[in-house]
Amino acid sequence: MKIFSSKLIDDILDSIEPVEQAKVDAKMLIAAKIADAMKEKGWRKTDLLKAVKKENPSIITKWLSGTHNFTMDTLVELENALGINLLNIAKPEIQVVTYYQSVHQESPTTCNDDFLVELLKNPKRPVPTNSIHSNPKAFSSYKVFAQA
Amino acid sequence: MKKKQEIPVTFQIKAVELIDYCLNVPSKPLPTEMVYQFDISLEHRPDPEKNIFAVVCSVTIFNETREELLGKLRSGCVYLIKDLGQYANTSSKVIELPEPIVTALHSVSISTTRGLMFSIFRGTFLHNAVLPIVDPTSFVMQNK
User: CA 20 to 30 Å from B98, out of A1, A28, A44, A103?
Assistant: First the structure.
């Protein structure tokens, strides 16, 4: 495949300051994040317009163009409307907490197949007294009440 | 007397992962009547932004005298906890869930790991190394 090269284009690209390039990248990235969030929610431009309580539909097109210079207020409004993070500030650094415990078996555990086969063959066989009967309701609820 | 207020905390299990495991063949055959020793560690790895709370459960299995390491297994239980961010302590940078929730998460994670261990070690020399019933409130916390 032939790769097109032009001295003029190379000169133009070289003349772009890294800071300017970073600004363009950031604007494009924000526009892409907004578009992705809208797609995920199944929103059209009018839905976003309603969510941010704006009246001019062209503002959404401008936001999605990747050239708009967003204000802090607009970014916060968009974050709240779309439920996404555009500013990446105040992200708490969360520490990993570890809990430890050492345990040992009280007596040797037996889970040999002969015992299981015998148990399945004789369902009326008395259950050992030290067996634990689980409460079927014990883990069916997914709500736990914490006392304050 | 002021009545204690009950706060509901909603959570659900999202995923169970077998992270890794290994078997260390013992230097001499294990006796048929064997009492195994276990070290259990539970790591809390929260992501408040996504309301995700992962508990990584590591179990190390030793022989009776703890001289020989026989095997290891690490599992991850991923939970979805509603409004997880509200439990973040900004000063200590730790998610401080209410004690009953921590106990419930530990209990589910240990039980799940017990099942994974049985499934993975079945038919090997660790066939009978069934993780004993553990009191989920008796773990000692250590910050890294």
Answer: A103
